[in-house]
Design brief:
The complex is a heterodimer of chains A (about 210) and B (about 210). Chain A is mainly α and about 210 residues long. Chain A has nine helices and no strands. Among the domains of chain A are: about 50 residues, no CATH class; about 70 residues, no CATH class. In chain A, helix 1 packs parallel to helix 3 and helix 2 crosses helix 3. Chain B has about 210 residues and is an all-alpha fold. Classes of the chains: A mainly alpha (about 210), B mainly alpha (about 210).
């Protein structure tokens, strides 16, 4: 008997429909298949017949317990009572607490990791002293020699950004408000003048 | 179907005994855990008949089925602390019972027994040439012999579903597999049974619907 692929597919469905409860109410598509496909019809009929035999054998073989098992079982049961073990108690109490703690820690980690990077600033003493003061609005002329170099070097190292401008503002402000800090931030013009003066002094001495 | 109803009642823990004393299985389990042996007796009385019958389907021996049923209840008693009260007691009991029985049969088979249903001698064969072999031999023995040739995982589903009338969901809980797996296995088991039955019965195999149509 040659079966088409549809017949092979239908075999599973037909096998599940072989039931005393559902035999009379087959789905419409299955009825159509059974009406049109002799292979499927034959398979279904054989299936029904085989299942009938199985049911008959099952009913015939059904056995009944003559006397209760309890009378013998009562003597065989262990004396100790079946109590929850120490491990199961531990599991019931500790595991939920541990789970909740772990969940809280995980949430905390996620919260910290998602904070914006700008807010995590490690402030120096100078920053702290000046950060609360408003920056003066100073127009920076980068054609002015001392700044040209720094502007050039900045443009070579990194693109000029709002932050770099802000830093320049801050440097200038510090130079104006904190005279003692000028040593830390030597003015290139001043050093040039000093160098010229030193050379002139040397020439005078030589003369 | 009456058998179906009984099977469903037993698994749901609402048998006739239950109607007299409507204590749930979970409540009885709690009482057993608290040391009440009578509660365990109630559980035994509630499930012993069905469990004995299910085990008997596999071993086909009264004494052996009784022993295995008792062993199942002892295992249940010993492991009652591991039972999750949010689950149903019935499927857990039958799961342990069926596993115990299948383990026993596997060991027996390994020891050299010729078949799982060893009560039947395998050398008996049906003569397909005779008019109706069922007249000469008991049909149930024939069925058992055919069942022997079906692999265990399919046979278990077939026995539980078609002979003991558990629902697919209940069989899934007992065998500890998904319901879809059980349905697939059931279809395969029925098809295999049909092929083997047809092969065994030969020309004597007459489909029911043809007979009905005559």
């Amino acid at each position: 008997m040659i079966m088409s692929c549809h017949c092979a597919k239908n075999r599973k469905r037909l096998a599940l429909l072989v039931d005393h409860d559902s035999a009379g109410k087959l789905p419409e598509d299955i009825r159509r298949i059974l009406a049109n496909c002799p292979t499927c019809r034959e398979h279904y009929e054989h299936l029904c017949a085989a299942m009938d035999s199985l049911q008959q054998a099952g009913e015939k073989e059904a056995v009944f317990l003559e006397k209760s098992l309890w009378s013998e079982l009562a003597h065989r049961l262990p004396d100790s009572q079946p109590r929850p073990s120490r491990y199961s108690l531990w599991r019931q109490q500790i595991v939920p607490i541990f789970s909740v703690t772990a969940a809280c820690l995980a949430l905390l980690l996620v919260f910290v990791a998602e904070r914006p990077a700008e807010k995590r600033i490690y402030r120096t003493a100078i920053n702290r002293s000046t950060s609360s003061l408003p920056l003066p609005s100073i127009s920076v002329d980068y054609t002015y020699a001392p700044f040209r170099d720094s502007a050039d070097s900045r443009s070579q190292q990194a693109p000029l950004s709002i932050q770099s401008l802000h830093q320049t503002h801050e440097d200038l402000f510090l130079r104006e408000t904190s005279p003692g800090l000028t040593q830390d931030f030597p003015d290139p013009l001043e050093s040039q003048v000093r160098e010229i003066l030193r050379q002139r002094r040397l020439l005078e001495m030589l003369e | 179907m009456k058998t179906d109803q009984v099977a469903n009642q037993v698994l749901a823990g609402t048998t006739e005994t239950d109607q007299r004393s409507p204590v749930s299985d979970a409540r009885l389990v709690e009482e057993v855990r608290a040391g009440n042996r009578d509660a365990f007796r109630e559980l035994v009385l509630r499930y012993e008949k069905k469990l004995f019958r299910v085990i008997h389907r596999f071993v086909r021996n009264d004494a052996l089925a009784e022993d295995l049923a008792q062993e199942t209840f002892i295992r249940i008693y010993e492991n009652l602390d591991q039972f999750d009260l949010s689950r149903r007691f019935g499927p857990w009991l039958f799961q342990i019972g069926v596993n115990l029985t299948l383990d026993y049969l596997r060991k027996k088979k390994r020891r050299g027994a010729t078949s799982l249903f060893s009560e039947i001698s395998p050398d008996k064969t049906v003569n397909p040439g005779s008019a109706d072999p069922r007249e000469r031999q008991d049909i149930s023995e024939e069925v058992q012999r055919v069942l022997q040739d079906i692999p265990e995982k399919y046979r278990t589903v077939l026995v539980l579903r078609d002979l003991e009338h558990f629902t697919s969901a209940e069989v899934a809980a007992i065998v500890n597999r998904k319901e879809a797996t059980i349905r697939w296995r059931l279809a395969e088991a029925r098809n295999r049974f049909k092929e083997l039955w047809k092969e065994r019965m030969g020309e004597a195999f007459e489909p029911r619907l043809e007979k009905d149509g005559e």
